[in-house]
Design brief:
The chain is of the alpha+beta class. The chain has 9 helices and 4 strands; from the N terminus they run βαβαββααααααα. The protein binds glutathione.
């Protein structure tokens, strides 16, 4: 398996966490986002990472997570109960509304409601949703200097006891 990856990309981090949780071995092909190679557009018409190659080419972090969950069901990230599985997928589906849009508003220096989104953020629902959200919360804390609500600070500290998430904290520290 190959992952077309970029350390600073939080969408790639979702996939790195899922792969680590499932103890899947893979090769990393690091893409320079400031000088993206032409061949990347042949793999993914949008020119974005992550892209997974597991014998076929798959872009889009949320779809890759779903694929990994189905193809490698050992160490599941989704809850067992179908209703809770649906809730986890809904959280990921609504990522832009629930956090992403306001995170990128902070990054651009625009007026934003990121603090309110953090206050309302549902965490701890599943490893699946946590893996999909934690990369942005780690970057908010460690790169943007955002003071997290105590509840989220504790959530990240607990997640960082897992090697998969601890590694992402290290990746961000090295950026
Ligand atoms: N919807 C995509 C978004 C991926 C994405 O935006 N990746 C960024 C890096 S964090 C990228 O490749 N950006 C290059 C660009 O926007 O042209 C996913 O979930 O995988």
């Amino acid at each position: 398996m190959k992952l077309y990856d970029a350390p600073r990309c939080p969408f790639c981090a979702r996939v790195r966490i899922a792969l680590a949780e499932k103890a899947i071995e893979y090769e990393t092909i690091e893409v320079d986002l400031s000088d993206r190679p032409r061949w990347l557009y042949e793999l993914n018409a949008t020119g974005k990472v992550p892209v997974l190659d597991d014998g076929f080419i798959l872009p889009e972090s949320a779809v890759i997570m779903e694929y990994l969950e189905e193809r490698y069901p050992d160490a599941p990230l989704l809850p067992h109960d179908p209703e809770r599985r649906a809730e986890a997928r809904l959280l990921v589906h609504r990522f832009d509304d629930l956090l992403g849009d306001e995170y990128y508003a902070v990054r651009r220096g625009d007026a934003n409601e990121f603090a309110a989104r953090l206050d309302e953020l549902v965490v701890g629902q599943s490893l699946y949703a946590d893996a999909a959200y934690a990369p942005w919360v780690i970057r908010a804390r460690d790169m943007l200097g955002v003071d997290l609500p105590e509840r989220l600070a504790r959530w990240l500290d607990t997640l960082a006891e897992r090697p998969s998430f601890a590694r992402e904290v290290e990746v961000v520290a090295a950026l």
